[in-house]
Write a structure and sequence with these properties.
The protein has about 160 residues and is α+β, with helices and mostly antiparallel strands. It has a domain at about 55-164: RutC-like (60s Ribosomal Protein L30, Chain: A). The chain is about 30% helix and about 20% strand. The protein has four helices and seven strands. Strands 1, 2, 3, 4, 5, 6 and 7 form a seven-stranded mixed sheet that branches. A hairpin with a 2-residue loop joins β2 and β3. α3 packs across α4.
């Protein structure tokens, strides 16, 4: 037999303000971009529509930075170290650093030849606690002579938030 609810109880429930189970999202902060300082590199990126980095909230997303093959007779670790120096410079312009790296994705045309020297160079600049790292072997990169492309996600350096 159905149970009847007194009308007064129904009216009392109807006057209780509704509280949603979730809060409305805060308006998204506008993203900021970091473009190259070099006019030729900037023109190339503007042609293809991408930035060195994008800052959104407290996160910095770097576009892939490519490294060509080490010159004949050159130390491949030193060669890849210059790539991490470039990454460090982009991060610094964005208000971050290699200490703030959260995630690394590397794309290798020949992972067997490049992974060990790249890891040695990376370990000079990226210290514990280590970020995540995914290394992917691929057929080719956009730049025909490139052997590795490094993509980084980092947080803004806590003391530098808002100091851009």
């Amino acid at each position: 037999m159905p149970r009847l609810i007194p009308a007064a109880a129904v009216l009392a429930l109807a006057t209780v303000p509704f509280a949603p189970a979730f809060a409305a999202p805060a308006p998204a902060a506008a993203k900021q971009t970091v473009m190259p300082e070099n006019p030729q590199a900037r023109a190339f990126q503007e042609q293809f529509g991408f930035s060195d980095a994008v800052i959104h909230g407290d996160t910095v997303y770097l576009s892939g930075v490519v490294a060509g093959p080490p010159p004949a007779g050159a130390d491949p670790v030193e060669h890849y170290a210059r790539t991490f120096e470039r990454i460090g410079a982009i991060l610094a312009r964005a208000g971050s650093s290699l200490d703030d790296v959260l995630d690394i994705t590397t794309y290798h045309v020949d992972i067997d030849a490049s992974l060990t020297p790249l890891a040695a160079a990376k370990n000079r600049y990226v210290k514990a606690p280590f970020p995540t790292w995914t290394a992917i072997d691929i057929d080719r990169l956009y730049e025909p002579t490139a052997t590795v492309e490094i993509k980084i996600v980092a947080r803004l350096t806590p003391k530098r938030k808002g100091a851009r």
